[in-house]
Amino acid sequence: MSATPYPQHTALSLAASGVPVLPLRRGKVPFGNCTACADNACGGRPSMKVPGPCRCAAPCHGWAAATTDPAVIVSPAWITAWQRAVCVAYHPGGAGLTVVDLDDADAITWARTALPATRTVPTTRGEHWIYRGAMASRNAVRPGVDIKSTMAYVRWLGPGTGTMAALPDAVRALAVKEPFPAPRAPQTLSATLRGGKGDCPHRTPAFLERGIAMAEHRITEASSAVHATVYRTFLAVLSRHGRCSCLTDTHVTRLFTAAQAKGETLRHCTDAWTNARTTLGL
Fold it and tell me: Which domain holds residue 117?
């Protein structure tokens, strides 16, 4: 990737419109903390919810270095960084914006059917959809989709096209994690993890077997957002089979085994199962 000519000029223009900016070095990543700020020895920045403030003149602390102050942007320490920078980034949350980062064609297709139209910016592999309003950032909310707003940075790729829409609930919902139970669920399988005690409405054992096999496949094929996929799969199994007596420890173990093969711990599996049962009122 070649360097952007005079990136500080772009940065000054963005800052004048109220968009906090920072330089990115090769690899599209922020400059590392200086020696004095390494490991947040300086106390960090208030925006990072740690003691501070840090008064370092360099563009330290990643996204928290983003600024709209032109005096900082053209200061000697920042000019040195701009000379090595390959592009400009901005802090969406600091500008009251949220970016839905769509990494591939499948993600774009999903967004066009699931999200309201808004301003879009082409990227190397996909698109940035920009909404007016800030929220918590979260990566891998679904395959090929990241949300970047507060405590995050996004590469500046141009103003984009289209009218910017208000941040919709559909985007906010993507960043909501399933709640953890309190207190912690037990670490071993027990009868409380199985389904209910009512009569089974399913006509043949094959119906349940097919459902468990499909659930195992869904978990095994997950390429990202594994934890969310596991939870949603558990929720789907319990919504269909959780109120009768057909689920056994063997079925639950198969699902847990598939999840653990994808890197989930037993505790995460147990928490996700318990959360799904709680959600369904089981």
Answer: 93-174
β pairing state of 21-25 and 87-90: antiparallel
Is residue 106 domain-shared with residue 164, that is, in the same domain? yes
Residues 97 and 73 in one domain: no
Q: Pick from 90, 112, 145: which residue ends a domain?
A: 90
Residues 215, 167 share a domain: no
List the chain pLDDT tens, one digit each, 282 residues. Answer: 445 567 899 999 999 999 999 999 988 899 888 888 877 778 776 555 555 567 788 898 889 899 999 999 999 999 999 999 999 999 999 999 999 999 999 999 999 999 999 999 999 999 999 999 999 898 888 889 999 999 899 999 999 999 999 999 989 888 876 544 444 444 444 444 555 555 555 556 677 788 888 888 888 887 777 788 888 888 888 877 777 767 777 888 888 888 888 888 887 888 888 887 877 777
Say if residue 107 is in the same domain as residue 66.
no
Helix H segments across 138-248?
Answer: 169-174, 205-220, 226-241
Boundary-marking domain end, from 149, 174, 199:
174
Q: Would you state the structure tokens that stand for residue 224, as one six-digit string?
A: 């990202």
My answer on whether omega of the bond before 53 falls inside 30° of 0, hence cis, is yes
CB 130 within 8 A of CB 119: yes
Q: Is residue 50 part of a domain?
A: yes
The length of the chain is 282
Total number of domains in the chain: 3
Q: Structure pTM? A: 0.62
